[in-house]
TrEMBL record:
Record GO terms (molecular function): oxidoreductase activity, acting on paired donors, with oxidation of a pair of donors resulting in the reduction of molecular oxygen to two molecules of water
Signal peptide interval: none
Identification of the protein by name: Acyl-CoA desaturase
Gene Ontology CC terms, in alphabetical order: membrane
Highest taxon, organism lineage: Bacteria
Organism: Streptomyces cyaneochromogenes
Boundaries of every Fatty acid desaturase domain copy: 79-341
Matching CDD domains: Delta6-FADS-like (cd03506)
Length: 361
């Protein structure tokens, strides 16, 4: 080796080696997962969502027809069951995911986040503001993520305790059958008005929007269809009421089990200051929990049994979450990140443990 080569070798070895930031490498790996799905979206995905829409409409039509003759108990049971499943599909796999913009890439105005209005009490625009923007940006950040307890539950030790929280196990349970109305009131952001973060004019506009939606929901399920049922008006009304309550209980269960099991972490505002893409991914993973289940469970839960994947990639088609979940889990295992998952009963028990634990000082 020449003297010059030796000098170059010594000089090169003396140069500082730039350390690899594992968090940013995590971000790059997960960005690649997302890019792979975006590049692969196509006809199969479009067929999936249109099939779900067709099944939902078929079930709703069958349920409404059966409830129109629901003086006969078998017809009431069949109609209520079909309508419950239809409302669950529309709320979880369709409404929630379409409003996230997961299907905007299709360019179909009938399945677009700007045009879809779901069968749920809260207006779509209000929900997109509080859920898509605030919750998914500031997941589990105390003081920023209003979904962390929905302003009425204490779910973190960083949240100041108040004696009213002693009752939170009771009102958390009572919230379940009327969950859509609780979310509708929550989306008004009355607390933001009191804090000066939202104008009274904007609040009153949202109240008017909710009033219009509430009138539509009540008129449809509790006036129009019961009247069309004629002699079966009362059992039809009760069937609609039962379907809405069961759908609400299911949505409450899936959402709470994906966000509030005991191992799910919360964060402070200081921790997200200057947050990078990789750190944002870390927070989404540690601030969410999955629920184990089969294909039917995941479809009926809006694929929110893959809550970790949904929080990491909220705009990817929901039918792809099961496909990417093993990759995300492997990345977490390799990088020492917790990947919280378990059967529904375990996540449900863990969630209630958290509710009870933070009810007291």
């Amino acid at each position: 080796m020449s003297r010059t080569s030796e000098e170059d070798s010594v000089t090169a070895s003396a140069l500082p080696v730039k350390a690899v930031d594992p968090t940013e490498e995590l971000g790059k790996e997960l960005d690649r997962v997302r890019s792979d799905v975006i590049a692969a979206r196509g006809a199969d995905d479009a067929h999936y969502i249109r099939t779900v829409i067709a099944v939902h409409r078929g079930l709703e039509t069958g349920g409404r027809l059966a409830l129109s003759v629901s003086l006969f108990p078998p017809a009431w049971c069949a109609g209520t069951a079909m309508l419950t499943v239809a409302k669950t599909l529309e709320n979880m796999e369709l409404g929630h995911n379409i409003l996230h913009g997961q299907w905007d890439w299709m360019g179909d105005p009938a399945i677009h986040s700007t045009t879809w209005e779901w069968d749920f009490a809260t207006p779509a625009d209000a929900w997109k503001r509080t859920h898509n923007h605030l919750h998914h940006t500031y997941t589990n950040v105390v003081g920023r993520d209003r979904d962390l307890g929905y302003t009425i539950l204490r779910m973190s030790p960083e949240q100041p305790w108040h004696p009213v929280y002693l009752l939170q196990p009771l009102y958390a349970a009572l919230l379940a059958p009327v969950f859509e109305w609780g979310i509708a009131l929550y989306d008004l952001e009355a607390d933001a008005v009191a804090d000066g973060r939202k104008s009274v004019r904007s609040f009153l506009g949202d109240v008017a929007g909710l009033a219009r939606k509430a009138v539509h929901q009540f008129a449809k399920d509790y006036v129009l269809f019961p009247l069309l049922a004629g002699p079966s008006a009362v059992p039809c009304l009760l069937g609609n009421l039962t379907a809405n309550a069961l759908r609400n209980v299911w949505a409450h269960t899936v959402i709470f089990c994906g966000h509030f099991p005991g191992d799910v972490q919360t964060f402070t505002e200081d921790q997200i200051e200057g947050e990078t893409r990789g750190q944002w991914y870390e927070r989404q993973i540690q601030g969410s929990a999955n629920i184990d289940g089969g294909l039917l469970f995941h479809v009926l839960s809006g694929n929110l049994g893959h809550q970790i994947e949904h929080h990491a990639f909220p705009d990817l088609p929901s039918n792809r979450y099961g496909e990417v979940a093993p990759r995300v889990r492997e990345i977490c295992a390799r990088r020492g990140l917790p990947y919280i998952t378990g059967p529904l009963w375990r996540q449900y028990a863990s969630m209630w443990g958290r509710v009870l634990r933070h009810a007291v000082p």
